[in-house]
Amino acid sequence: RRERQRFVDKNGRCNVQHGNLGGESSRYLSDLFTTLVDLKWRWNLLIFLLTYTVAWLVMASMWWGIAYLRGDLHRAHDGAYSPCVANVYNFPSAFLFFIETEATIGYGHRYITERCPEGIVLFLFQSLLGSIVDAFLIGCMFIKMSQPKKRAETLMFSRAAVVSQRDGKLCLMFRVGNLRNSHMVSAQIRCKLIKSRQTPEGEFLPLDQCELDVGFGTGADQLFLVSPLTICHEINSKSPLFCLSQRSLRSEQFEIVVILEGIVETTGMTCQARTSYTEDEVLWGHRFLPVMSLEDGFFHVDYSQFHATFEVPTPPYSVKE
């Protein structure tokens, strides 16, 4: 097997990194919410903790500053004096008052008096700021946790694709399966052939994308993915693989990207699973082993044979030949 750089890994991760953005990097800040959702979990948790920690310390410092400017810190234990916030006489007590106010715990020991207009204004500002921070960060964490990316982990693709005859026609085939009992609603599959080529005008296209028809015209690309299915691309005169033969398969360099999309039945969210097959993972003259069997009142799927293939007589010539 020849090892080379893949455009899409077997697990669906795209090997593309964006660099030298220059001034365009400011676009990430203009859509800050999506940027935070796209970050890795470690950065999300770090931003979540830092934002709340800094906001709490700043607001607690403001409450402590009001008490310091009014002289409440030195007369907090004076029963005849009416402070801005009762029982706030140092920074820890100001911090505890802020936490009690923000979390609406209300122990009753610390409270704002009516003779402190600046404290009332700060309380209103704290309520508005706290609501905005909570809505932004908690909403970000909720969206990130509810993303259906992990649902794609239970969508399987065969390790290899095969080329053999079906109904007298040469076809490229691969297998997909769903490990969960919950269905993928409106599941649709697409295939792209990634291959470098040079145009008649001399322009070199390093990653040219061509569509592989897997039943778009007949509706075969709309899947009822209850049991494992074998997806078939007929190699004909309109196929980009029209000139592919068993001999040329050894010298070609291409990658077939498979994209499976559907709506998760339990959440109603759109999920996408991806994989790819390089020329080394296309087996000429092979067919997939059956995985379905009829048991007592139900159909049994044997996933131990999901990736298994066997050789079948197949002409080594291309469709063009």
TrEMBL record:
Predominant location: membrane
Recorded topology in the membrane: Multi-pass membrane protein
Gene Ontology BP terms: potassium ion import across plasma membrane; regulation of monoatomic ion transmembrane transport
Site (Role in the control of polyamine-mediated channel gating and in the blocking by intracellular magnesium): 134
Key words, A-Z: Ion channel, Ion transport, Membrane, Potassium, Potassium transport, Transmembrane, Transmembrane helix, Transport, Voltage-gated channel
Catalyzed chemical reaction(s): K(+)(in) = K(+)(out)
Gene Ontology cellular component list: monoatomic ion channel complex; plasma membrane
Cellular localisation: Membrane
Pfam families, A to Z: IRK, IRK_C
Name the record gives this protein: G protein-activated inward rectifier potassium channel 1
Upper classification of the organism: Eukaryota, Metazoa, Chordata, Craniata, Vertebrata
Gene that encodes the chain: Kcnj3_1
